[in-house]
Specification:
Elements (H helix, E strand, L loop, with lengths): L13 H9 L24 E4 L16 H4 L5 E4 L1 H6 L8 H16 L2 H10 L2 H4 L18 H15 L3 H13 L1 E2 L4 E4 H8 L3 H13 L3 E4 L14 E4 L7 H13 L3 H8 L10
Antiparallel strand pairs: 1-2, 3-4, 4-6, 5-6
Helix pairs in contact: 7-11, 8-10, 8-12
The structure holds zinc ion (ZN) (2 copies).
The site of one zinc ion has 4 residues, from β1.
Length: 278
């Protein structure tokens, strides 16, 4: 059927995904399920379920629909993992029933203003949205760089962009509070915790995520503490690579924006990487 085009799985648009979360009440849509879609640390655990499958062979696929309609808001709902699996039973969950469940759930969610605000805070638009990598980095440096610099910068910024929103926010504040030395960025962990008015339990989640991505490291009090204006555990921001290109990028960003914390937040929280370009 040519008029509908070849069925191709298209991923839902960012705006649609955002609207889905905003109208989810941060709860799985299936009746009786209490699972959250975004956990307390901003990690997305919900899944996007197609009422009519995105491609032939999928559940409830409708050959008379089209690719755009299949990724439209009206055809999608947010479920927890285990409920998503349940909906693979198309006898139990036919199209009409899922449409009804979606409508009922969204109606319920609009009556949950507080949850809605919460989820706006947590939903990581970047995880679902393309971000734009810098093109020339000339706002932070006029010097020409070698291939390695661009390669490492790209992978570092991409890694940061894929972090949960709340972890990026933590990272941005750690970046602002860090002291810059000769190709190092180091800060006082306890000072950071106090500044963020949070607990070690909260920040330890962010730290383990960042450590796993090689963006962050902790050092217990070291011999050279006298060169730093604080004692105790320090954190260091890391650059992903051995040749220091990644840390060099962070160093340049820190140098250029050290008097402008708002810009640092725009870069790492809002992923406005074009601020690095001239
Ligand atoms: Zn599904
Ligand atoms: Zn569920």
């Amino acid at each position: 059927m040519k008029m509908f085009g070849t069925p191709t799985r298209l991923s839902p648009r960012a705006q649609v995904r955002h609207r889905l979360f905003a109208l989810s009440g941060n709860n799985c849509a299936l009746p009786g399920c209490a699972s959250k879609l975004v956990d307390d640390y901003g990690n997305i655990i919900g899944q996007i379920c197609h009422i009519e499958a995105a491609a032939p062979g999928g559940e409830r696929f409708n050959p008379n629909s089209n690719n755009e309609a299949r990724r439209d808001f009206s055809n999608l709902m947010l479920l927890c993992y285990s409920c998503h699996i349940k909906t693979n039973d198309v006898v139990e969950y036919p199209t009409e029933r899922l449409r009804q469940i979606k409508a009922t759930h969204e109606q319920w969610a609009t009556l949950q203003p507080v949850l809605q605000t919460n989820i706006e805070k947590f939903v990581d638009a970047s995880l679902w949205q393309e971000f734009k990598l810098p093109e020339n980095y000339r706002n932070i440096s006029n010097e020409p760089h070698d291939e390695d610099f661009y390669t490492h910068a790209k992978s570092l910024l991409t890694t940061i962009a894929q972090l949960p929103m709340s972890t990026r926010s933590f990272y941005a504040h750690a970046f602002i509070k860090a002291l810059r030395g000769d190709l190092w960025l180091v800060g006082n962990l306890d000072g950071l915790r106090v500044a963020l008015n949070t607990t070690y339990q909260q920040i330890s989640t962010h730290i383990s995520i960042l450590e796993e991505k090689h963006l962050f490291g902790l050092v217990e009090e070291a011999d050279d503490w006298m060169t730093l204006p604080f004692r105790g555990t320090r954190y260091g921001l890391c650059g992903l690579d051995r040749d220091d290109n990644g840390i060099y990028l962070l160093y340049l960003i820190h140098q250029h924006f050290s008097g402008d914390p708002q810009a640092i937040l725009s870069i790492f929280e809002d992923l406005d990487f074009t601020l690095l370009d001239a």
